[in-house]
Amino acid sequence: MVVLLLIAGMSVFPAYSGKAAALTKPPLTKEDCVKCHPGPPADIATAGGKHRYVPCMGCHAGHPPTVKKPIPQCSKCHLKTRKAHYELRDCLTCHKNPHTPLIISLAGTEACKNCHAQQIAQLRDNKSKHSALNCSTCHSVHRQVPQCTQCHKPHGGELAAAECNKCHKAHMPKVVTYADDIPSKDCGTCHRQAFDLLNSGLAKHKTLACAFCHKARHRMVPKCQDCHGTPHPAAMIAKFKKCGDCHSIAHNLS
Q1: DSSP-based three-state secondary structure for 249
Q2: What DSSP string runs through 52-104?
Q3: Model's pTM, two decimal places?
Q4: CA angle at residue 86 from 83 to 91, to 5 degrees?
Q5: What are the strands, taking DSSP E only, across the chain?
Q6: What is the pLDDT of residue 19?
Q7: Any bridge partners for residue 172, and if so which?
Q8: pLDDT for the residue 136
Q9: Are 159 and 148 in contact (CB under 8 A)?
Q10: Cis ω on the peptide bond leading into residue 65 (within 30° of 0)?
Q11: Cα 187 to the chain's mean position, in Å?
């Protein structure tokens, strides 16, 4: 009788211990995941952005067959930020691989405007040929800024590609502005006659940079009185209403 009980106990104990082992099964770790999935951890380390700080199980709640849908929606985390960008549908249109969210495939202007509203407004409000282009025409890769000479020839051989943005802003290229310290030789690339006349003259204007008179905006022509006031008697001013009647032009004073 005692032997039979012992045998029965031995037959029950293994089954019970198996269930207990199943209940105490340790959770999966990154070391477990990488045994079958070496690619995603390597991708995240390369271009994962803030995903680098999230463990595998932070997104994937489990593994089939225990969990039927191990791949979560992006909105699980990103809608909580309440930013317009994260309210866009179809995140994978631009972010093809959630393990490399920094590698972005540009889909078009609609997706771009949520983060780059200022640039879109500049294109819309300052019409040029650039306004008709999709963002991805120039920015084939996110955050890539192409050189202007990729499409445009420089005004002259002396200008390098990096100098285009001294006067032209890519999203409103027709609104030409420049800093006060822009070299006059850069202006001379397009305005050669004025530049040569100024440099061959003897007047004090020769010592001034083009930007000193044509301040900060292309085609802005100042009045002589802005600097010189009215140095002549009223009778002379009444007879010769324009300074150029006597002094030719500012670049070649007589």
Answers
A1: strand
A2: GGS-HHHH----TTT-S--S--THHHHGGG--GGGG-S-GGGT-S-TT-TTS-
A3: 0.61
A4: 165
A5: none
A6: 52
A7: 169
A8: 83
A9: no
A10: yes
A11: 28
